[in-house]
Amino acid sequence: MGWTDDRVELLRQLWSEGHSASQIAERLGGVSRNAVIGKVHRLKLESRVKSADAAAAQPIIVQETVSATPVTAVAPRVIAPKVVAAQAISQSRPVARTLGATALKVELHPDEEEHVATATQTSAEVVPMTRKLSLVQLTERTCKWPIGDPLSPDFHFCGDHSGDGSPYCSYHAKLAFQAVERRRR
DNA sequence: CCCTGATTCGC
DNA sequence: GCGAATCAGG
Fold it and tell me: pTM for the full model?
């Protein structure tokens, strides 16, 4: 596919709207993100890097997340609240990892699973971390488990890594599976 | 690792 | 002009 006038126009629009090169490439079809970037340069469109990265970066809603999360109340011994807050504010990834160390146990080694499961079940609804991704940010390998009321402003998706193939992360894949099983009976 | 844009350079 | 490969960064 070549760069017809209308395709170029669409490119201009999407780029100015802050879409990433890969997103635009998908939208247009028949071109790679490199092609898009290359074209953008040839067209001398603005290096909208600032806003792009800013958009790519997770909005800092962390406060709400931390305070609202039952982690502190449910498992006080695991992580000191202050530590959690500090890390949460600094970066999003590390937080996931840190909390993940706790949350991931739910889906870890089969032999330990039972052991952990007991403790987890007792402490109710401590779900793995989510990356709070918006619809636009989902990819082939992000968990698409919806969280919250779709009509609510804070609605988002899990966004955790989904094992190659399934649309959900291992944790939510289990939930989905259970749900289906339950419904069948 | 996955993703982002930036650059280079053969076609 | 085009875009894959590669680079640099988060």
Answer: 0.44
